[in-house]
Amino acid sequence: MMIYKDTSKSIPERVEHLLSLMTTEEKAGQLAQPFGWQAYSNDRGHITLTEAFKTQVEEGGMGALYGTLRADPWTGVTLENGLSAKEGAEAVNLIQRYAVEHSRLGIPILIGEECSHGHMAIDGTVFPVPLLLGSSWNVELYKTMCRAVARETRAQGGAVTYSPVLDVVRDPRWGRTEECFGEDPYLIGELAAASVEGLQGERLDSTDTVAATLKHFVGYGSSEGGRNAGPVHMGWRELLEVDLYPFRKAVQAGAASIMPAYNEIDGTPCTVNEELLDSVLRQEWGFDGLIITDCGAIDMLASGHDVAVDGLDATVQAIQAGIDMEMSGVMFSRYLVQAVEEGRLGMEVLDQAVRRVLALKFRLGLFERPYVEAERAAEVIGSRQHKELARQLAGEGVILLKNEAACLPLSIPAAGRIAVIGPNADHAYNQLGDYTSPQPRVKVVTVLDGIRRKLADFASDGHGDIVGGNQTHAEQEQILYAPGCRIKGDSKEGFERAIEAACQADTVIMVMGGSSARDFGEGTIDLRTGASNVSDHSWNDMECGEGIDRMTLGLAGVQLELLQEIHKLGKKLIVVYINGRPIAEPWVDEHADAILEAWYPGQEGGHAIADILFGDVNPSGRLTISIPKHVGQLPVYYNGKRSRGKRYLEEDLEPQYVFGYGLSYTTFEYSVPRLDRASMTPEEFVTVSVEVTNTGACSGAEVVQLYITDVNSQLTRPAKELKAFSKIRLEPGETRTATFQIGAEQLQYIGRDLKAVVEPGQFRLHVGRHVNDTQWVELMVEEA
Predict the structure, then answer these.
(1) Which family does it belong to (predicted)?
(2) Could you give phi then psi for residue 775, rounded to 5 degrees?
C-alpha cells in the first residue's frame, strides 16, 4: 500500500509521501479552487459533469471547488435547474468519483460552501442571520445551530464552510452588517469559539462536521465610510485589542481555516500582509491551518489595490505572504507553475502551501470517505428538528425596543380586527437575508403567515371556528392585509388600500424595514391588491447585503410616510422591523406604541414574531449593536474611548437604543453585586455574583451583563467593556444568582509594547441589564 493511503501512518507522514510524488502542475492544482456549480449540469434530474471540469482534473487536478451546491442569482442556479438535497449529494459523489478515479494520484476534492446562517443550498434550513443570532446572547443555542448546519452541509459532501464572520462592526451603513454578530469583540469572541466547536465537533473526519473558515481577517468591519472593502485606518493596538480578539479566540478553539479580508490596513492589503498572516497568525498564535483568499482577492492586488505589476506578480506576492489557496480565482492556476519555472517562486514555498491543503483533506477523512450517502442527505437537510431550532433561535433574538403602556403582548380576543401592513409583512425573501438560496414560498413563514396561523390555532382550540388548511370566513374578517408600499421607490399607489385596512382594524401591525433579497425572479407585490406579481421582474428592493452600502440609516422609500399616514388614524400602532442593519427613525421611536427589531429572522421568522406579539414567547433578545438617533452620530459604538468628546451642537453622543438593551414582558430586579474579596493580583481570580429576581407576572429570560472599567491607565481606555454575560431563565418570583469569574484576561489591555498587561490599580465591575443600567463594585488590583 502507498504510504499516503495507509491510515496507520500519521498525517504528516502521509502528506510528505504524497507531496514527494507530485509534479509541479499537480501541486499548483491543489491550490486552485474553481467555481463548483460550473463542474456539472442538471437536465431535469440527470446530472452530468462538464468537459471543462474533466479536463482540469486530468491535466493536474484542483484542490477544491467553491459553491458546488450554492444556489442564487449569481450562480444562476434556481429551484428549477438546481439540485435537491439528495441530488446535491449525488452530484458531489459524481464529482469526487471522477477526481479520484481519473487523476494520477486519486486526490479527493475539498468541497467548500457558504454557511453563514445555514447551508446556502436548495432545501437547506435558513436560520436567522448572524446579527439576530448574536442578539440572542445564547451561546449554547448558537452552537447547537452550528452543529445542525455542519450536519446538513456534510450530508451533501460539503467539507469546509466559509463561516463564521467575525468582523467587528464600526459603521452600520456597511451592507454586510447583517452577516456580523455586532460591535463588541468579547461577545463576538464567545460566539466565534462556539461556532468552531459546533461546526468542527470533536473531530473533522465525521459525517456531521465541517472545517470552519474564520473571516474576514481583519478589520473588514471598520472600513472608511462604511464602504465595502474600503481602507481601514487603525493602529496596531486597537487592531490587537478589538478586531483580532475574536479571531484569536476562534484559533484557540481549533479553527481549521482563515480567510484574509479584501481591505488594506495602513496601506497593506490583508491578502499580502505578512505581519498578520505570519507574525501574528502563525508565529504568535501557532495557527497551522489553511489560509484561503476571498473571491478575486489576488486579482485586486494588481487591479484595485495596485500593489502588484500584473497577475504573475500578484500571485507570487500572495503565496509568499502566506496564502495557501485561491478561492474561485484563476491567478494561482494560471501563474504558479510559471513562477516556479522562471525562478520567481521557490519550490519550498509552493510545497508548504500544498502541505496545508493536503493535511486538511487528511484531517477531514476525505481519502477514506470521499463519498456520502444520498439518502441520508434527504433525511437530514431541512429536517423538522432544524426547522424547530430556526424558530427557537428567531424567538430568542428578536428585540422588544419599545412597549408603551404594555401594548404587547396582544390578546387575540382583545386585539379585535388586526391590520397587517407593510412591504415586509408577506414578502418571504425579505426576511431571509443575503447569502440565501432560492426558496419555495411554502417553506418560508412570513409575519402575515404567522399571525394567521396563530389565530387559526386559537380558533381550533375551541375559541372559535375550527380551521383546517384554509382560512375561515371569520379569520379573513379578523385579519386585513395590505403591503402599502415597497421598500424602495416613491410609489404611493398602495397607500389607499393600506389606510382602508387600518381604518377597519382595531390593532395595526406595520412590518417595515429593509431587504437583502437578490433578484430571485419572484417578481414584486401588487400594491393595490397585495397579490404577488410574478411577471414583474423589473423591480429590486435590495438595500442591504454585500456591496449594498448606504449613506443613511433611515427607512428607504416612502415607508416613513406610510407610517405617518396610518398613525393619523389614532389606532394602536405596532411596528415590526425586518432589516439587516440598524434603523434610525426618531419619529417612529416617538410615535409607535411598540417596536420589535427582528433583523432577518429566517424561514421561521413569521412564527417567531407572532409568538412574541401574542405572548407565547417572552422577548429576550438584546442589542449587540448601538442604534443611533441620527446617522450623523456615527461612529456610535458603546466602547469608544472616554476621550471621544461630549456632544454635537445638534445632539449628544448617546444612541437611541444602547448596547445590551432590550425589554421584556416581565420585570427583573438586581441585588447589589458582590465580590468574594476586594483585591487581587494579576495571577489571581475574584468572583462577582449578583442575585436576579423575576418580579413580574410571567416567566422570562434576562441577559445579565458584566462590564469592566479600568479607572486609571497609562493609555486611554473605553469607559466600559463587556467582559462576561449570562442568559438566565426565571419563573415569576424566582431568584437566581449569576456568578462570574474575573482574572487577568478580563482586566488586561494592550500596553505600550503591544503586549497584554494588567496594570495595578482601581477597577470597577459593573453588572446590570445593559451598558447604561448597571451597579458597580470596586476591585483593587495589586502588584504581583
Answers:
(1) Belongs to the glycosyl hydrolase 3 family.
(2) -115, 150
For residue 425, give the C-alpha cell: 409583512
Residue 125's identity, in one-letter code, is T
Cα(764)–Cα(783) distance, integer angstroms = 17
Euclidean distance between the first and the last CA atom of the chain, given in angstroms as a whole number = 58
| DSSP annotation of 53 | H
Q: Which three cell numbers stand for residue 349?
A: 514555498
pLDDT more than 90, % of the chain = 93
The sign of the torsion formed by the CA atoms of 199, 202, 207, 213 equals positive
Asked if 599 contacts 128 with a C-beta cutoff of 8 angstroms, the reply is yes
What are 187-214's pLDDT values in tens digits?
Answer: 999 999 999 999 999 999 999 999 999 9
> Which pLDDT tens digit goes with each residue over 438-463?
999 999 999 999 999 999 999 887 55
Q: How far apart are CA 340 and CA 317, in angstroms?
A: 13
The residue behind cell 509568499 is 320
Grid-cell match 445555514, residue found = 118
Q: What is the DSSP string of 627-687?
A: B-SSGGG-S--TT-BTTS-SB-SS-BS--SB-TT--B-SS-EEEPPPEES-SEE-TT--EE
Number of Cβ within a 10 Å radius of residue 761: 16
Q: With bands split at pLDDT 50, 70 and 90, how would you rate the model's confidence at 469?
A: very low
Q: The pTM is what?
A: 0.97
What residue ranges do the domains of the chain occupy?
Answer: 3-380, 398-633, 668-781
Select 668-781's CATH number: 3.40.30.10, 3.40.50.10490, 3.40.630.10, 2.60.40.10: 2.60.40.10
Which residue out of 123, 294, 449, 611 is catalytically annotated? 294
**Cβ neighbours for 461, distance < 8 A, ≥ 6 positions apart:** none
C-alpha cell at 335: 501563474
Cα separation values, 34 from 16, 23, 38, 256, Å: 25, 20, 8, 20
Strand locations in 39-195, DSSP E? 40-43, 46-49, 64-66, 110-113, 160-161
Is residue 695 within 8 A of residue 682, CB to CB? The reply is no
pLDDT on residue 66:
98
Identify the weakest region by mean pLDDT among 338-342, 346-350, 539-543: 539-543
Phi first, then psi: what are they for 27, rounded to 5°? -65, -45
- For residue 329, name the pLDDT band (cuts at 50, 70, 90): confident
pLDDT at 608: 98
Q: What is the DSSP string of 207-272?
A: TT--EEEEEEETTGGGBGGG-TT--B---HHHIIIIIHHHHHHHHHTT--EEEE-SSEETTEEGGG
Mean pLDDT of 677-706: 98
* DSSP one-letter code for 280: I
Q: State how far the Cα of 290 lies from the Cα of 357, in Å rounded to an integer.
A: 6
- 582: cell is 440598524
Matching CATH number, 3-380, of 2.60.40.1120, 2.160.10.10, 3.20.20.300, 3.65.10.10: 3.20.20.300
The backbone torsions φ and ψ at residue 662, rounded to the nearest 5 degrees and listed phi first, read 175, 140
What DSSP designation does 169 have? P
Q: Are 295 and 328 in contact (CB under 8 A)?
A: yes
* Residue range 362-381, pLDDT digits in tens: 999 999 999 999 999 999 99
Under DSSP, the state recorded for 306 is -
Residue 534 has pLDDT above 90, yes or no: no
CA dihedral sign, ordered 666, 672, 678, 679: positive
- Which pLDDT score is estimated for 537? 64
Is residue 294 annotated as part of the catalytic site, yes or no? yes
Is 398-633 a CATH 1.50.10.10 domain? no
CA pair distance 49, 63, nearest whole angstrom: 17
What mean pLDDT is predicted for residues 662-671? 98
